[in-house]
Amino acid sequence: MSDQAQGVSRRGAVRLIGGATAAALFPLSMEAADLPNETRTRAIPASGEKIPVIGLGTWQVFDLGDSSNQREPIKEVLRRFVQLGGKMIDSSPMYGRAETVIGDLTNELQLRDRLFLATKVWTTGKQAGIESMERSFQRLRISRLDLIQVHNLVDVDTQLATIRAWKEQGRVRYLGVTHYIDSAFPEVEKIVRREKLDFLQINYSIVDRAAEERLLPLARDHGLATLINRPFSSGDLFSRLRGKPLPDWAAEFDCKSWAQFLLKWILGNEAVTSAIPATGKVNHLEDNFAAGSGRLPDAKLRQRMVDYVAAL
After folding, report:
1. Residues 6+ apart with CB under 8 A from 103
2. pLDDT tens across 50-96, in order?
């Protein structure tokens, strides 16, 4: 979900419900709050390397021009992301100028060695795929990528062959595939069963739970790390929650906002490695990142969360 949708929804909620209640649901700043000293991490099965359970997506919000007015908020997000212990940043050449913005700002902030950078290829044909991925290296200003994923399974066999060869050469550390709609899950399942992959990125949220039926257990059984896109489903989920009270029992899993509620529900599934909500605002980043610390809901609480949201 983009920060444009998420941001509008959160700001709308603050305007509508106002005061102390709004601050409790959508904290505007957490500088003085109990930010995590150590964020939960989970291992990439292929290597044992650990990454934080909250990462950073870049769709829409990182598609910016060159002006400092546009880029300064994203620069602050990146700086704060690393301060909080963040590593995983996911992008794509289909996200406009996002890769270029990441490359420019991480170079300016000298953050590259502290990040896990993931991008994608989304084109047909071997040479077109090579050219697309080479451009990603140039835009991100790197000679080695942590993860390249075949976006939405486009020409998946051709592109995986190139990525696999680059992995053997040391240019890429991990490879994977992505999708974002439930109707593609049968084809995704075939690829997971057929190919040796390191990562699977799919959509999953408290209102879109199809991935937990087969794909997430399958990924776990095949030793894949999983990245979760669209963790807030879309902007209408925050609109749906606007003005609604966070249940008192959310305190049982150290939850202080709706964003944390939704992310902790996802992370309560141990087949999930990391969720990657997109944001271009530091206060939203802090709110999201806090979901990676403290207790997580168990199976009984997760069902109670589903029922509570469904009833709203």
Report:
1. 139, 140, 141, 142
2. 999 999 999 999 999 999 999 999 999 999 999 999 999 999 999 99
Q: How open is the CA angle 149-3-155, to the nearest 5 degrees?
A: 20
- pTM beyond 0.85: the answer is yes
Q: Are 232 and 287 in contact (CB under 8 A)?
A: no
Exposure string of 176-210, with b = 16+ CB inside 10 Å and e = fewer, is: bbbbeebebbeebeebbeebebbbbbbbbbbebbe
DSSP state of 54: B
Six-digit token string for 275 = 């969720």
Whether residue 79 contacts residue 109, with contact meaning beta carbons closer than 8 Å, is answered with yes
3-class DSSP assignment, residue 117: strand
Q: What is the CA radius of gyration of the chain?
A: 19
What are the backbone dihedrals phi and psi of residue 54, each rounded to the nearest 5 degrees, phi first? -115, 125
Q: Which of 310, 280, 292, 283 is nearest to 25 (CA)?
A: 283
